[in-house]
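Comment thread on ticket #2218

A.B. wrote:
> Attaching the input chain for the structure job we discussed in standup.
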Amino acid sequence: MIILDTNVVLRVTYELGTEEVSRSTRDFVVDSQRRGEAAISAATIWEIGEQADKGKLQTDLALFMDRLAEDQVIIIPIDGNIATRAVQLRREWDEKDPADRFIMATAILTNSQLVTTDAQMIAWNGPARVVDARQR
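C.D. wrote:
> Ran it. Output below, let me know if you need it in another format.
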């Protein structure tokens, strides 16, 4: 399974800033979706909703959820283990954004590759298997 970071979901699903996601990554994500092996953290839904609510993103959250279902993207809920790991990440990784910590914790605890364009996630030398979506 792969975990899609919010930036990759937005670029592949809504084709926003597609120049940042390589063609091979795009194909990899679409193939993973077709096989039912692409997932997101529930934090991604929160993050997109927050961006839309602040006017930074033009989307309807209900339509976004419908699109995820159409694309066969699995939504991984934030349970106690993920929440605990996200708290621990604050001490291990210099990341202030709680959504990014929840997404990273989800990838670590599901032993999944995290597909992202986020330079800080890519650069972190932690236990996650991070795929640079710009270069894959």
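A.B. wrote:
> Thanks. Noting for the ticket: The longest helix spans residues 80-92.
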